[in-house]
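Q: what sequence does this backbone want?
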């Protein structure tokens, strides 16, 4: 199982944690939401918990609860800026379909 970060995403994670003044990683998750079924969730991880899996790329760390790994295994996370908007962008091989606005997705069965 693997989750990788581009250099831009890793830099953004490091900057956010530095601004916050604490934390060891970005916590990624998946929650039921939106018109397609699932959406990504983001939070700070102040510690790696027993049921977490830790991933590291370009000196930045991401944690995911092990029971959610199947939703995002194999994903590459990038950070993009388009005009005034910026966000993390997933390249997730487990996605079957996304909604029109791009906020939610359904998984391959």
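A:
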């Amino acid at each position: 199982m693997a989750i990788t970060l581009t250099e831009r995403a890793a830099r953004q994670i490091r900057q956010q944690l530095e601004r916050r003044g604490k934390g060891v990683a970005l916590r990624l998750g998946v929650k039921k939401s939106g018109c397609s079924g699932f959406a990504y969730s983001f939070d700070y991880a102040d510690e790696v918990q027993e049921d977490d899996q830790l991933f590291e790329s370009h000196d930045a760390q991401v944690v995911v609860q092990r029971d959610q790994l199947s939703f995002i295994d194999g994903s590459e996370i990038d950070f993009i800026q388009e005009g005034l908007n910026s966000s993390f962008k997933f390249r997730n091989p487990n996605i079957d379909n996304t909604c029109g606005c791009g906020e939610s997705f359904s998984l391959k069965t």
